[in-house]
TrEMBL record:
<keyword id="KW-0539">Nucleus</keyword>
<dbReference type="InterPro" id="IPR000798">
    <property type="entry name" value="Ez/rad/moesin-like"/>
</dbReference>
<keyword id="KW-0472">Membrane</keyword>
<dbReference type="Pfam" id="PF00769">
    <property type="entry name" value="ERM_C"/>
</dbReference>
<dbReference type="Pfam" id="PF20492">
    <property type="entry name" value="ERM_helical"/>
</dbReference>
<protein>
    <recommendedName>
        <fullName>Merlin</fullName>
    </recommendedName>
</protein>
<feature type="binding site">
    <location>
        <position position="282"/>
    </location>
    <ligand>
        <name>a 1,2-diacyl-sn-glycero-3-phospho-(1D-myo-inositol)</name>
    </ligand>
</feature>
<dbReference type="GO" id="GO:0005886">
    <property type="term" value="C:plasma membrane"/>
</dbReference>
<keyword id="KW-0832">Ubl conjugation</keyword>
<feature type="domain" description="FERM">
    <location>
        <begin position="14"/>
        <end position="299"/>
    </location>
</feature>
<dbReference type="GO" id="GO:0005737">
    <property type="term" value="C:cytoplasm"/>
</dbReference>
<dbReference type="InterPro" id="IPR019748">
    <property type="entry name" value="FERM_central"/>
</dbReference>
<keyword id="KW-0597">Phosphoprotein</keyword>
<dbReference type="Pfam" id="PF09379">
    <property type="entry name" value="FERM_N"/>
</dbReference>
<dbReference type="GO" id="GO:0005634">
    <property type="term" value="C:nucleus"/>
</dbReference>
<dbReference type="Pfam" id="PF09380">
    <property type="entry name" value="FERM_C"/>
</dbReference>
<keyword id="KW-0175">Coiled coil</keyword>
Length: 547
């Protein structure tokens, strides 16, 4: 067979892109494939067995539609693109997640989808519940809280809270992280699948969980979920105005834009409403049929496949529980071992530190011993030197004692000389006073003598006038005898007087000169005594310092 013949037999294919909540996949599909063929391929790729909850969704003309399983993919009204994009999402929701979601992959896909719906505000959640749900999401992603590893700011890049909650409270990102971490720290020991299941168990109690809303009138919304059909006011999606449980509905049908709900009680009123488009009625009916089938299945005996899956799920849970217990035990043992290791390291470090300190102390002791030896040697040398100095000091002391004795004797003699000098000075002062008084008396006598001389001259002049009046004016004509006789008498007296005065003046001058000479000598002697006394004082001071 030729290569061209082989090529002709190869079926034609088209590409599709499957987008899950956390991944993207591409497949090549045959042109004749139905929706179920593509859906089964995706489920096999994901390892999913609980296929009845899921479907392939696409958007056409602004309306979300589910791919029909019994029709060819290319025969349906799908986007004309290459590759064709489909979203693999949960189409139907369980009533009790813990009992119905058996596989871990199923739980994980539901967890991611419900979390996204809460963050996108498609499901309303109170702020307190969002913080708790966020803590379980963090536990599922990061595992047990470790303050040494999960430092502040480790949630900065994670989207955990709806924007509505962030706007409602004026809290910083650090405050929100602190609140979430407080809950997160309490989930220690919870595995990832258990944390995701706890997340879903809280979420399934929210009013808007698993409800698909459709506008049916100006002010009304129709909601379809796992429990039945509900009628809501357009402004209140939490509390339905009227509800029809699946067990109370006998039939649902539509005719173009009219949808009819017939209760099981034939006497009850039939509910009819009109939608804007025929496609909306078809989508509503499709969702009603699927939810009703699941509702009835839950209330019947499980099929062999479901029983096997539940048994496997129980075994898997038991195995995981044991595995988790083993891991927890190993983790505990590892933590204890790490703590023991840390304690040993701390003790080792402490012992090393003590050894280092002891070694340093030993080195210091050795250094101190060497230093003490050097000091002892120096002290011994100093002792010898001090002994030598002591001997020299003793000799110096003896010399100083002798010097001091000499000095004391000299000082005594000097003091005696000073006393004698003082006595001489006193005597000289007294002699000076006496001489001064004698000089005064002599001056007085001299003054009296001169006064007597003046009076004698006056008297002689008077006598001359009486005896020789004509010679008063002309004394040269006085007789020689008379002049001589008179002058002789007066001259004798005058000569005597002059001789006495000269003698007295000479004696006074001589005594004055003697007094000045003695005073000068006495002052020189006093200066010598002061110099000697000052030298003795200096020697005494030096002798005191030496002693």
């Amino acid at each position: 067979m030729s290569i061209r013949g082989l090529k002709k037999k190869q079926p034609k294919t088209f590409k599709v892109k499957i987008i899950t909540v956390d991944a993207e996949m591409e497949f090549s599909c045959e042109m004749k494939w139905k929706g179920k063929d593509l859906f089964d391929l995706v489920c096999r790729a994901l390892g999913l067995r609980e296929t009845w909850f899921f479907g392939l969704q696409y958007t056409i003309k602004g309306m979300c539609t589910w791919l029909k399983m019994d029709k060819k993919v290319l025969d349906q009204e799908i986007p004309k693109e290459d590759p064709i994009s489909f979203h693999f999402l949960a189409k139907f929701y369980p009533e009790k997640v813990e009992e119905e979601l058996l596989q871990e992959i199923t739980q994980h896909l539901f967890f991611l989808q419900v979390k996204k719906q809460i963050l996108d505000e498609e499901i309303y959640c109170s702020p307190e519940a969002t913080v708790l749900l966020a803590s379980y999401a963090v536990q599922a992603k990061y595992g047990d809280y470790d303050p040494n590893f999960h430092e502040p700011g480790f949630l900065a890049h994670d989207e955990l809270l709806p924007k509505r909650v962030l706007r409602q409270y004026q809290l910083t990102a650090e405050m929100w992280e602190e609140k979430i971490t407080a809950w997160y720290a309490e989930h220690r020991g919870i595995a990832r699948d258990e944390a995701e299941m706890n997340y879903l168990k809280i979420a399934q109690d929210l009013e808007m969980y698993g409800v698909n809303y459709f506008p049916i009138a100006v002010n009304l919304l129709l909601g379809v979920d796992a429990k039945g059909i509900h009628i809501y006011s357009i402004n209140n999606r939490f509390s339905p105005n009227k509800s029809f449980e699946w067990s109370a509905i006998r039939n649902i049908s539509y005719s173009e834009k009219e949808l009819t709900i017939k209760p099981l009680d034939k006497k009850a009123e039939v509910f009819k409403f009109f939608s804007s488009q025929l496609k909306v009625n078809k989508l509503i009916l499709q969702l009603c049929i699927g939810n009703h089938d699941l509702f009835m299945r839950r209330r019947k005996v499980d099929s062999i496949e479901i029983q096997q899956m539940k048994a496997q799920a129980r075994e898997e849970k038991a195995r995981k529980k044991m595995e988790n217990q083993r891991l927890a035990r190993e983790k505990q043992l590892r933590e204890e071992a790490e703590r023991a290791k840390e304690e040993l390291e701390r003790r080792l470090f402490q012992l090393e530190d003590e050894a280092r300190q002891a070694n340093e102390a030993l080195l210091r002791s050795q250094e101190a011993a060497e230093l003490l030896a050097e000091k002892a040697q120096i002290a011994e040398e100093e002792a010898k030197l001090l002994a030598q100095n002591a001997a020299e000091a003793e000799q110096e002391r003896q010399r100083l004692e002798i010097t001091a004795l000499k000095t004391k004797e000299e000082k005594r003699l000097m003091e005696q000389k000073m006393r004698e000098a003082e006595l001489i000075a006193v005597k000289l002062v007294k002699e000076s006073d006496r001489r001064a008084k004698e000089a005064e008396h002599l001056k007085e006598d001299l003054h009296e003598a001169r006064e007597a001389e003046r009076k004698a001259k006056q008297k002689l002049l008077d006598i001359t006038r009486l005896n020789y009046p004509h010679m008063v004016k002309y004394p040269q004509y006085l007789p020689t005898d008379a002049r001589d006789a008179n002058f002789d008498k007066g001259s004798i007296k005058l000569d005597l007087k002059d001789i006495d005065l000269k003698r007295l003046s000479f004696e006074i001058e001589r005594e004055r000169l003697d007094y000045l000479e003695k005073s000068r000598k006495f002052e020189d002697r006093l200066k010598e005594l002061k110099s000697e006394i000052h030298a003795l004082k200096l020697e005494e001071k030096q002798g005191g310092l030496y002693s």
